[in-house]
Design brief:
Helix content is 8%, strand content 32%. It is mainly β.
Length: 157
């Protein structure tokens, strides 16, 4: 199951909705008498990941959804994560530098999914002329920062 499918299923289960073919959602139970509108769901982004997704964080965790914009020439800076993240490139082209790629670099385009594991140092750079916009879901152990910039705390440097 793709990351976007997992997130959509989770959102539908959480809200008690079922997806319908036109992209809307319908409630699984009758609306309350005071309800004036049906429940709706909006897909914010969809990305493809041919490798599949397996997210595992041991112990209590925090889940954070974030929209990140990198202006032309901007970089996330070197960092790592104590947990995992799943992202979709909503707009632009992101150059991702990490030791997990052949040659240490991979380029992601609009509509691509990004899955980052824990521990390894990496950075994302907007080397283009337009903004890069990422929709990111972090699954990080409680008490840990979303991005660790003290590289001595990264597992694999």
């Amino acid at each position: 199951m793709t990351a976007s499918a997992l997130l959509l299923v989770g959102a539908l289960v959480f809200t008690g909705c079922t997806a319908v073919s036109n992209g809307a959602a319908s409630p699984t139970a009758s609306p309350s008498p005071t309800s004036t509108a049906p429940v709706t769901a909006v897909d914010l982004a969809k990305g493809e990941d041919p490798n599949g997704v397996d997210v595992q964080v041991t112990g209590s965790s925090q889940v954070v959804f974030r929209r990140i914009t990198l202006h032309p020439g901007a970089s996330t800076g070197d960092h790592c994560h104590a947990g995992q993240l799943i992202a979709v490139v909503e707009q632009g082209t992101l150059t991702h530098y990490a030791p997990i790629y052949p040659g240490g670099v991979h380029v992601y385009h609009t509509g691509d999914a990004i899955v980052e594991g824990s521990g390894y140092v990496h950075k994302g750079v907007n080397e283009g002329t337009d903004d890069v916009v990422l929709l990111v879901t972090y699954v990080i152990p409680d008490g840990q920062p979303l991005a660790q910039t003290d590289l001595t705390k990264c597992d694999a440097q």
